[in-house]
Amino acid sequence: MRRNWIAGIFGWVWLAIIIVPIYWVVITSLKPSSEYYTTNPLLPSLSPTLSAYQLVLENDFARYFVNSVIVTVCTVVPAVLIAFMAAFAIVRGSGRFLRYTNSFLLMGLAIPLQATIIPVYLLIIRLSLYDSLTALILPSIAFSLPLAVLVLSNFIRDVPGELFESMRLDGTSEWGTAWRLAFPLTRPAVATVSIYTGLQVWNGFLLPLVLTQDPGLRVLPLALATFQGQYSVNVPAVLAAVVLSTLPILAFYIVGRRQLVSGLTAGFGK
Amino acid sequence: MALPALLFFAFFGGVPLVGVVLLSFTQWDGIGAISWLGIGNWTSVLADPVMWKAMGLTFGIMVFSWAVQTPLALLLGVFTAGTQKYRAFLAVLYFLPLLMSAAAISIAFKALLDPNFGLAATLGIPILVQNWLGSPTLVLFVVIFVLSWMYVPFHSLIYQGGARQIPKTMYEAASIDGAGTVRQFFSITLPQLKHTIITSSTLMVVGSMTTFDLIWILTAGGPGNATRVLAVDMYLRGFRANEMGPASVIAVLIVLIGLLLAQLLQRLGGKDKTSSQMEGM
After folding, report:
1. A40-48: long-range contacts at Cβ-Cβ below 8 A with a sequence spacing of 24 or more?
2. Chain A CB contacts of B213 below 8 Å
């Protein structure tokens, strides 16, 4: 292929736009707070220190991290299981009830969480769940279902009909077929949906902002925002918190980049 | 087996959707009792210049960030779909913003743009020394820039997927006919990506109706009301001013306009059964 100079230059310019802020965040987070105001912003510190990170960790970072993990896991696992069951029923079954369920869930794709936050808040209060991690989990599960069902049912549809037929002839129940045949065969889609849902929840900000109050219940994005308010003069510490909150996902990116990238778009590129 | 999903979504998705319409006709401070009000909220919100300013801002940011993001994402998607090694390497780095939450990104840029000590101020390039977040006009550029920084990688992933599905033979045929790179881009790549453009644009447009996290943390709608977009307006009315009724009116408007725009874009792209479901997002 011919070299394409214009594309090349454009590619490197965009790289700079992406990398310079990230580079600055990382090197600044390693500076002693006194050095931040005096040294060249683009040069790493001559005496790098982890003290900013220490300060963040001392400020209950571990607890916020655990909160985020709890909310994410407790959302993704039930959401994917429930969505898988619904997708399986919709693909395999027939009848008006399933058709309506399908169109109802598809319609749900168009309902943004942000726009329903006030009634969700009212529901959570009435259920006496306000200011609990459960308050974050339940709506998160619900709002992840439409897309999860859509993606999973597209994949279950691709499972060859003969496989289902032979399971039926062996006398396996629909329930058994779902979990022993369809689930293993659609594992890539399950992974995609789990990652997509997981990232949405992990990075979610509005639900925690509106539905929790107790500092002990903060999840990472909310904790970041409050930390920034408290330590606005200690920029290295604020940026260390930013780095720390991103590290888990970065680790994931390094280990399973392909999976993560396909999960990120949840099949939009299809 | 579909029952749990149906009940779950009906309860936390369906009920709130009906609920927000009902609440828009009531008076509620978020704590006390809810009382029926009728169309009072609607008449007052529709006559409120603050709402119209938020509406204009939302559309302005939508149009500008679409105009910035679409060409960038398209070019980057096509660029990273190429087979050269260095492009694959660059792609790994391009997607880094996708790993960060809106909270992390806005906090990083807030520090970076600090008028006294941020990177922009201390680099020594005079034009970068500005009160980026304090000026009502500059802040709009900042919001569009940061939104693009955050979302272009996502959309370039979509374009990358689309570009990889264009048959190689089309390019080979074009090369034999003597078409250069630029000509190939406009005659093959662009038309072939039509559906991808519609999908990506729909996600962008509908998404920008609900942009909240990034703007809220970056500017909290300020300075003044300079970045008070509809979603921020809704939050401020509902959860800061404790006026859930008017806030619900804004929420209903967000849903309606979002649906309308999604429909419109679908028409624009022509009906395509398989992808239209995705485009409704």
Report:
1. A40/B122, A41/B118, A41/B119, A41/B122, A41/B123, A42/B119, A42/B123
2. 205-206, 221
